[in-house]
Write a structure and sequence with these properties.
Elements: H1 4-10, E1 13-19, E2 25-31, E3 40-44, H2 49-60, E4 65-69, H3 75-88, E5 96-99, E6 103-106, H4 110-116
Parallel strand pairs: 3-4
Antiparallel strand pairs: 1-2, 2-4, 3-5, 5-6
């Protein structure tokens, strides 16, 4: 069992599945936050320091969000995830945060993220 501070920092995590139009299931991990600010999705790489900082910031702000480590997905899901990221971020760089499918924040942009969730 984790200590109280660690438990609060890590957040309660549950698995979500997103069924996309080509019936390829893309697996996301959901971080339950105290602030529901619409659908927030973080596309990240497991080896990316800026992705880790973005995830840490969203968690610290108490934002309810889902994320996927694109590089750890099985091949068909990974290809689908790259297509999704390119829809919002043609450079296909990471991290990419998508808010309600309308707003995209690319890279670790602390000020923009804080403003988006103020």
């Amino acid at each position: 069992m984790l200590a109280g501070d660690q438990q609060a920092h890590i957040a309660h995590v549950r698995k979500l599945f997103c069924l996309n139009k080509d019936r390829v299931r893309m697996e996301f991990t959901h971080v339950k936050g105290t602030k529901k600010k619409g659908e927030v999705i973080l596309y990240a790489l497991s080896t990316c320091g800026w992705c880790a900082k973005t995830k840490e910031l969203l968690t610290g702000l108490g934002i309810d969000f889902s994320y996927a480590y694109v590089d750890l997905l099985p091949r068909p899901e990974m290809e689908k995830a790259f297509e999704e990221v390119k829809r919002y971020n043609p450079a296909c760089s990471f991290p990419t945060v998508v808010i309600d499918g309308k707003r995209t924040i690319v890279g670790f942009r602390e000020e923009q993220l804080r403003e988006a969730f103020a």
